[in-house]
Amino acid sequence: MKSDIEIAREARKRPIGEIAAKLGLGPHDFLPYGHDKAKITHEFIGRLNGHRHGRLVLVTAINPTPAGEGKTTTTVGLGDALNRIGRRATICIREASLGPNFGMKGGAAGGGMAQIVPMEEMNLHFTGDFHAVTSAHNLLAALIDNHIHWGNALRIDPRRVTWRRVIDMNDRALRQTTVALGGPSNGHPRESGFDITVASEVMAILCLASDLADLQARLGRIIVAETFDRQPVTARELQADGAMTALLRDALQPNLVQTLENNPALVHGGPFANIAHGCNSVVATRTALATSDYVVTEAGFGADLGAQKFLDIKCRLAGLSPAAVVLVATVRALKMNGGVARADLGTENVPALEAGCANLGRHIENLRGYGLPVVVAINHFTSDTETEIAAVRDYCAGHGVQAVLCRHWAEGGKGAEELARAVARLAEGDEARFEKLYPDEMSLWQKIETICKRIYRADHVEAPPAIHEKLAEWQAAGHGSLPVCMAKTQYSFSADPSALGAPSGFTIPLREVRLSAGAGFVVAICGDIMTMPGLPRVPAAVRIGLDERGRIDGLF
């Protein structure tokens, strides 16, 4: 099998105008960025008038492991397969961040014969959306310090400025910084720091805004600091929302590309799946629903984080309702959840596999608790044995769901046709009775407890008095109806990344809460979650470069 980058380079891409025509776009409805990518215009989206006729399918997964699950690859393979069986399907995924690309994770465009192209551009600068988010975020940061320097009319307390700066790179040296050193002409010195761009509230806002007016309104609601009287200061009070919106005008337009099988894909936005909701943009999803029979999308990390946030934040705020859910698992990852070391995953081990299936079973139970039909996609690896595959199928049957073996990595859409037919049966039936996990009127603390106990299966949530006081303060200020965005490790249902499988009887330690008033949710941070990752000992960047023909090499 050729490498992902070799397969992507050999793709027979169609002109982007042909891909746009599949969605009903005319020549003036998209802005080409070269021959193989484009942005869909605000004008075209405005003409859709909120019309939706497509069915929304969410692809999620078991908790991620080093063994690999293949959620994006399955998303792409399913989209291609639905088109092969006669359904007009569009894929909606997030854009890739430069930080993980040059760090440990690598690119995010699928793999094997189930990829979205152009792969190199998508994983690097693409159409500049992340740069626009970085600029808009840092413009606001500059305006805060500038306001303090020139008299501080809003009486901002420099000790209580919460708005940090961002960069789209993993750089642990920037986590904590001191700004404005060097004398009075450089401003008022204070402690600050950097987050990675995908952790910016601006990124979350971009992905939840419905149009330019909504974008500016949300940007204006961002709380950046407190006054000496402990009153919140917003971006609107700093008169930053207009210029920020101008910087983000083009970035709000969804990016149109194609799969290896020349089917449309909207790749747009990229909020961090820990500190934010981890989904592609509402604008892209709604546009795809208005122009396709099916929309296949994914949510970050495992279902306990990604699907929960997709259903309780994105669907709640955007008025979306999925028709079916695909839960991705691999035999290898399930064996790792059952205690098998990574080096031994190629050896058949049915007892460990059955033990690891507890992780899969809990995700099935959680998803069905939302009233949604579920199908399990077994992402095939060549080391899988027939006995192991049968064991997964039997386990899923015992939970009342179908498990489908998928070979899209090796065969493209053809290898996922059985999955596509299973998804179509569920989505076109009448099983979906989507119910959110909690009502808007539930208190913020009760929402946190509900997620921790019903999704993670924790016995207790531990939080210091200051967190309870802050939540009560936000409740009194009118923010109590907001959903909660949990930030915890993606590797376990618990806050301990080493607790694989389906742990229970644990305590979730709540370290901090943040109000993302612009995005429209409250962030609850558990354990040691960081908003500025560091690079590993051997970062992916050391193997990335150009080959003798000037082509990008080493991304995959």
From TrEMBL:
UniProt xrefs under Pfam families: FTHFS
Keyword Oxidoreductase assigned: no
Listed pathway(s): One-carbon metabolism; tetrahydrofolate interconversion
Annotated residues for binding of ATP: 65-72
Enzyme class: ligase
UniProt KW keywords: ATP-binding, Ligase, Nucleotide-binding, One-carbon metabolism
InterPro entries: Formate_THF_ligase, Formate_THF_ligase_CS, P-loop_NTPase
rRNA-binding as UniProt keyword: no
Similarity comment: family membership: Belongs to the formate--tetrahydrofolate ligase family.
Entry protein name: Formate--tetrahydrofolate ligase
Species in which this protein is naturally found: Paracoccus broussonetiae subsp. drimophilus
Organism lineage string: Bacteria, Pseudomonadati, Pseudomonadota, Alphaproteobacteria, Rhodobacterales
